[in-house]
Amino acid sequence: MQQRYDAIIVGAGMAGIYAVYHLQRLGLSIKLFEAGSSVGGTWYWNRYPGARVDIESMEYSYAFSDELQQEWSWSERYAGQAELSRYFEFVTDRFDLRRHMQFNTRVSGARFDEDAAEWVVSTSDGQTHRAQYCVMTTGLLSAPNKPEIKGLEQFKGEVYHTGLWPKEPVDFSGKRVGVIGTGSSAVQAIPLIAEQASHLTVFQRTPAYAVPLRNHPMPAEYQQKVKADYAEWRRKERYESFGGWVAMHYEASGLTTTMALDTSPEERRALYEDRWQNGGLAFYNVYPDVYVNREANDTLAEFIREKIRARVNDPATAALLTPDYPILMKRLIADTNYYEAYNRDNVALVDISKRPIETITATGVQANGQHYECDALVLATGYDAMTGALTRMHVEGRGGRLLTDHWAERARTYLGLMCAGFPNFFVIDAAGSPSVVFQPIFVAEEQINWVGDCIQQIAGSGRRSIEARPEAEDAWGDECERALQATLFPTVNSWYVGANIAGKSHKGLIYLGGMAEYRRWFNGEAAEGYPGFLFDGGLMQNAVA
Ligand code: NA7
After folding, report:
1. How far, in Å, CA of 261 to CA of 401, rounded?
2. How many domains does one find in the chain?
3. What is the rounded average pLDDT for all residues in the chain?
4. In a mutational test of the pocket of ligand 1, which residue from 14, 205, 245 has the highest number of ligand atoms less than 8 Å from its CB?
5. 279-329 tens-digit pLDDT
6. Is residue 85 pLDDT above 90, yes or no?
């Protein structure tokens, strides 16, 4: 029998868990579908060796409940995958949310039934379900990018993707392993695989900028100090730190507002050295002109290049590992012993920047005219970020319009929240939002609160649906583009601009105007009666009753 709910939520990651918590408290009947066997999303799927968050644990966590903040304790400065997974399990059970969730069930499609003003959601168990609202908490980095490398299917050994890692531990002891990719996932996994494998060959298309994470056990007194005044920490994290990423660092160093090019080389070096000693993403708290001016950017890039060269013994390998493009325009990577792994006798780096891998054979990888024997391959090749999780589903809006067509030339959204012609279909932490340059749990909490208010507004006014106005979508797309083009981001091939997926448009994927400006837009919409949205397909006036 077809079940009907007020809202269907898709994906039990950090955003989906909070969506269940919040929407059920508003009295809605809800159902969440999740492809995995439990909660956690990113931290459920990414079980590869070394998987760890690069935002401090005390910051990378929910802020919606002080009881929760007080009850939970982190064991490390940066939590590892297993601890993060336990945290999301804990939150789910702490608030009794599991009863709204159905696991091992992948949503394959959603179609808007215009007559009923309801979504018909299809799931992998062959069932269909109806709901007035769909809340798509499907994740930013959750659709693995399996590269189209010739011959991959004929490889006889084991093949793993970092984002689809098996639950059972993988033992590489005595094996020759090939890792393809050198992004964050590879950089975390390589030092640990190197310790186990008999030999490791890393195939690198683009060298990464990586800086030390400097993880350590969580000092008890530090945890107590934050907990004693968590609300104030959260306020700072939310409103006073770039990206909500490094509030703890800002506390110590303050926000950098002077320009790199107005600063003496000695002073600049001292500031960069401070970030280096702090570790991790503190490097995002640098001179603002680093983001927009190549010469300014080079002052930081060169500082990191020097550090890379100093960490690698063999100069030829060091040269290959040293990037020449602007720094921070790909996500900065925080590493633990990454470069040192190349100083081991059993690790080799193969440069595939000039010529891609020719083919994968039954027994290894053919590249640069050479064959590299491998017993196992690790694809650390990233994700179809921001849009992939949704475009891989069959999503059909008003008039049979497909989301894939709607997003073909630009990821068209208004505020990264809704699309024109897709009524009551909310996307969370998705394209067109600042989520990838802010603390994504915070963005999700704020977006879901907005969605809850919006649903209540609709319910209280006798309307049935809300969707973005096409002209609001256009304006938001232009706003995203304007903010993007003001920076150096478009000059570097990264998943931020869709460059890792052949044929993907860079437009509308990321909003770089800042969280404060983003809040101003979406709070303004709610306060002014949603002028950028249409109710009931435009049949009713938008003025708030
Ligand atoms: P990333 O950062 O997208 O890294 C993927 C890596 O795989 C990157 O080095 C790519 O090279 C490489 N890649 C992708 N396709 C290929 C092919 N076909 N051949 C060779 N190499 C390839 O993904 P991660 O999982 O590491 O990290 C994702 C995010 O998670 C990260 O940014 C953090 O925010 C957390 P490229 O650079 O495209 O030349």
Report:
1. 49
2. 1
3. 95
4. 205
5. 889 899 899 999 999 999 999 999 999 999 999 999 999 999 999 999 999
6. yes
Q: At 114, is the secondary structure helix, strand, or coil? A: coil
Q: Ligand 1: which atom is nearest the Cα of residue 352? A: 20
The answer to whether position 214 is within a domain reads: no
Q: Which two tokens stand for residue 290?
A: 């680093």
Among residues 249, 262, 250, the alpha carbon closest in space to that of 290 is found at: 262
Domain of residue 31, residue span: 3-143+384-538
Render pLDDT for 365-395 as a digit per residue (tens, 0 to 9).
999 999 999 999 999 999 999 999 999 999 9
CA of 495 to the centre of ligand 1 (A): 8
- Mutate which of 46, 47, 184 to test ligand 1's pocket (most atoms within 8 Å of Cβ)? 184
In SS3 terms, 259-275 reads as CHHHCCHHHHHHHHHHH
Residue 370 covered by a domain = no
DSSP string, 477-540: HHHHHHHHHTSSGGGS--GGGTTTSTT---TTSB--S-HHHHHHHHHHHHHTT-TTEEEGGGTS
The CATH number given to whatever domain includes residue 510 is 3.50.50.60
> What would the pLDDT profile of 319-375 be if each residue is shown by its tens digit?
999 999 999 999 999 999 999 999 999 999 999 999 999 999 999 999 999 999 999
Residue 359 lies in a domain: no
Check if 162 has its Cβ closer than 6 Å to any atom of ligand 1.
yes
Q: What is the pLDDT of residue 239?
A: 85
Please report the pLDDT score of residue 252 as a whole number. Answer: 66
Quote the ligand 1 centre to 512 CA distance (angstroms): 21
Task: Answer yes or no: is the C-beta of 42 below 6 A from any ligand 1 atom.
Answer: no
The confidence band for 543, taking pLDDT boundaries of 50, 70 and 90, is very low
Longest Cα–Cα distance in the chain: 72
Q: What order do you get walking across the sheet with 370-373 strand by strand?
A: 359-360, 364-367, 370-373
Q: Is the pLDDT of residue 246 over 80?
A: no
Residue 450 lies in a domain: yes
Task: Tell me if 138 CB under 6 Å of ligand 1.
Answer: no
User: Is the alpha carbon torsion for 249, 255, 259, 262 positive or negative?
Assistant: negative
